[in-house]
Specification:
Length: 299
């Protein structure tokens, strides 16, 4: 059992204690890891590009994690704490137990704490379920997070573009035909001579909407107050966006970096724009799907 606790009067002792039991009634304390705060989770992942190697990950309440080894009683850290989401509304991550062996995936969901839901009959939401994998990169091990493949079951109308070049100017909006409040957007963008590029989400003629912008010089992506360092791969950036009615989840470069935020768009603002500033942007490919509600009854 992995349990959040503060074993002494010193708040610095707050962390995760590990207990063992033979009968699930009587428990024996085995070890403690300080520096954690509530909602712990402990999982084992196979390293994707090293099939013979496995690592354990210990999660904190905010989704950050430490990579290490676990012998059933003691967790031994092999890394510092690593941030797993750079947004403002991502907390209390938990993975599913008892995923069928033939499936084999490790699936995680989080509470999108702090969202605002005016005039709605609920208060709160969860993130979209994601598959977790662990990969060894040149800079070390890193958790990769991507939406579960079942998102495809919600795909509705499809728009797609290939090998397009964008120049600055609102009249060049490639996405002027796309309208909707729930969208799945996936694309690969060549930075070429652009200084900035990005999306305007849920905009209209009276409202500029929510801006997602990549700064080429600074190598940062900004959205809703979050600023995230992103290094291009071969001068290209891959973006995957899940736009829901009150949230935007962004998966960058195949899930190496994730940004989860809640937002409150203007009712009736359902337009979408792709822009570039300062120079040309290449769109290697771009797919956009309108999304059906998961609550819609089957016809």
């Amino acid at each position: 059992m992995v349990l959040y606790r503060q074993p002494t009067d010193d708040k610095k002792s707050r962390g995760v204690s590990i207990y063992n039991s033979d009968d699930l009634v009587n428990w024996t304390w085995k070890s403690h890891v300080s520096g954690f705060f509530e909602c712990p989770d402990l999982i084992e992942l196979q390293v994707t590009n090293r099939p013979e190697e496995k690592k354990w990950l210990l999660f904190d309440g905010d989704g950050s994690y430490i990579i290490g080894a676990f012998d059933g009683a003691t967790f031994t850290a092999e890394s510092g704490k690593i941030k797993s989401d750079f947004g403002a509304n991502y907390y209390a991550t938990q993975t599913w137990s008892n995923v069928p062996k033939e499936d084999g995936r490790t699936l995680q969901i989080a509470w999108m704490r702090g969202g605002k839901y005016p005039n709605m009959p609920f208060n709160g939401q969860m993130s979209f379920p994601c598959e977790l994998t662990l990969t060894k990169f040149s800079f070390g091990y890193k958790l990769v997070r991507n939406p579960v493949k079942e998102i495809e079951l919600l795909h509705d109308k499809h728009y797609d573009w290939k090998e397009k070049n964008l120049i600055p100017g609102i009249k060049e909006n490639l996405l002027r035909s796309v309208k909707g409040d729930c969208l799945h957007i996936i694309g690969l963008f060549d930075l070429k001579t652009a200084n900035y590029f990005g999306f305007m989400i849920r905009n209209n003629r009276k409202n500029s909407g929510t801006e997602i912008m990549y700064n080429v010089k600074n190598r940062t992506l900004s959205v809703l107050g979050s600023i995230v360092p992103i290094v291009p791969v071969d001068n290209k950036i891959k973006l995957e966006l899940l736009v829901d009615r009150t949230s935007i989840e962004i998966f960058i470069n195949d899930g190496q970096t994730v940004v989860s935020n809640c937002f409150t768009p203007e009712e009736g603002a359902n337009d979408l724009a792709l822009f570039t500033n300062g120079g040309e942007l290449g769109v290697d490919w771009l797919d956009i799907y309108k999304l059906k509600s998961v609550n819609e009854k089957e016809k």
